[in-house]
Amino acid sequence: MSTAEWIDTSMKGVTWTRTCKEKRVQRGPLTQDETADLVVVGGGFCGLTTAITAARAGLRVTVLEGGIVGVGASGRTGGYTVPNHPHGLTPGDVEERLGPRKGHAFNALVAEGPNRVAELVREYGIRSDYLQNGWTLPAHSSISLAKVRTAYDQWKAFGAPVQWLDREQIAAETGASGYIAGWKNPVGAVVNPFAHSQGLARAAEQEGARIYEDTRVTAIDQPAPGQVVITARANGVSRRVQAGKVLIATNAYTDDLVPKLSKSIITLYLYTCATRPLSPEILKTVVPNKNCFTDLRDATGFARLDVEGRLIAGGAVFVSAINPRNYGLKYSRDKVLMLFPQLRGHDITFQDYWEGYNCITEAYLPHIQRLKPDVFSLLGCSTRGVSLMQNLGLLMGEFFGGRRNLDDVPVELVDGVRTIRMQGFKTAVGRNIFPIFQLKDRLRLT
Ligand SMILES: Cc1cc2nc3c(=O)[nH]c(=O)nc-3n(C[C@H](O)[C@H](O)[C@H](O)COP(=O)(O)OP(=O)(O)OC[C@H]3O[C@@H](n4cnc5c(N)ncnc54)[C@H](O)[C@@H]3O)c2cc1C
What we know:
Layout: E1 34-41, H1 45-56, E2 61-64, E3 80-81, H2 91-98, H3 100-124, E4 135-139, H4 142-158, E5 163-165, H5 167-174, E6 181-185, E7 189-190, H6 193-206, E8 210-212, E9 216-224, E10 227-234, E11 237-248, E12 266-275, H7 280-283, E13 292-294, E14 302-305, E15 311-316, H8 324-339, E16 350-360, E17 367-372, E18 375-379, H9 385-400, E19 412-415, H10 423-430, H11 434-442
Parallel strand pairs: 1-2, 1-11, 2-8, 4-13, 11-18, 17-19
Antiparallel strand pairs: 3-7, 4-6, 5-6, 9-10, 10-11, 12-15, 12-16, 13-14, 14-15, 17-18
C-alpha cells in the first residue's frame, strides 16, 4: 500500500483539533511550475523547522506537503516533549553509536531540545499551549529501576538538570500508583502538536517560505550538480519545481521517491486516545503538576493532560485484532485504571481515538541519507520526534543556508540509501507485537 493512502487530511478524531488556538490556514496546492533554492518535502515538525532557518538565512524555500500541514505524525502525536532517548538508550549508548563528538552534540540536542522549542514558541508567538513543567521517567519494576538509575546517573554526569525522586516523590509528581522511584527533568514539556504545526508553518511563511498543501511529490531527479527537478501532483496535474537542493522530511510517510528509500526505515503504527475532560476534583490527583511521564514498560505507560483536562493515553495498533480500535481502547482503559486507581468509579469514557505512523531505524537514532549530490533525507526519529525533529530541522535549515557544515548536524550521515534487512517482515512484526509486549510487562520481564 502506498503511504499516500495513510494521509487522512480530515484529522478525524484528533483531540488537538478541538483545542487548537492557532488559526488553521487553508493553503492552496502548487498551481504552476516554479524555482526555489531549497525544496522541502513534508510539512511536519522536521520540514517546517528546516524551512524556518533556511528561509531566515535568505534562501527561497518551497515546502510541498501531500496533505495539510501537521497531517502526518506531527499533528497527531501525544505531544510529550521528552529530553531523553527512546527505547532505554542512554547518553553513553549514543556516544558509542555516534562517536564522542557527534554523540555528545546529539545528547545535548536531546537534553536541551525542549528549551529551543520554547524559544520558537516565544519568538513566533506560537499558540500551542506549550507547558514546560517537566517530564519524568518512573521505574515500574526492579528490572526497570536499574535502567532508570543508569540513565539518571549518565544524564547527571552529562550536566542535565535531572532530579532523583523516591517512591513518595514520584507518586506526588505523577499522581500514578505503583512506581518505585525515578527521575525528573524539568526541561520536559507538553504541547498541542497540531496547533504547534500550524504555528511553525506560520513562522516559516513569516520568514519567507512558500508552503503548498495537497501537493504530493512523485519524483525527484538530479540531472546536473546544483540542479534538482521535483515533480509533484496537485489537483490531478503534474507540476515541476527546479531547485538547488532538496530535503525529504517525510518520516514514516516515506514512499520510494528515491528507489528503496522506504526500506531505510521500519514504520510503526500507533494510536492515541483521550478521555472526556476529567472532573476538577479528580484532576487534583491525576498528573497534578500538569507535566508528563513515560515509563520503560514494553507497552509503555505514559500520561499527560490536555488543556481541558483530558487524559491522553495510547499504544501500538494491533492490526490482527478483530477490531483494532476497540482493542486499543480497552488496553488504554485498563492501563489508565492501573496507573490511576483513583479513577475507578469515575467517567473515563474515551472521547477521541486516532492513529498515525511513526518510524525507527535499527539503531533507534535518526540519520541523514545523501541520496543524490543535492538530495537528502532526514528520517527515523523513533518515538521521540516532537522535540528532536524540530531541533534537527532547525540545524538542517542552517546547513542549507550555508551557516553550518553538514557534519555539524549530530546524526549519522549515510551515502545513498541504507536499506534495512527484512524491512517488510520487521514492519509486519511491529503491527502485531503489542500483545506480546503486554504479556512481557505482566510477567514482570520488563
Ligand atoms: C500516534 C503517535 C504518537 C506520537 N507521540 C509522540 C510523543 O508524544 N512524543 C514524541 O516525541 N514523539 C511522538 N511521536 C513521534 C513524533 O510525532 C514524530 O517523530 C514526529 O512528529 C515526526 O515529524 P516529521 O516532521 O519528521 O514527520 P511527519 O510529521 O510524519 O511529517 C511527514 C509529512 O510528509 C508528508 N509527505 C509524505 N510523503 C509526501 C510526498 N511524497 N509529498 C509531499 N508530502 C509528503 C506527510 O503528509 C507528512 O505531513 C508520535 C507519533 C505518532 C504517530
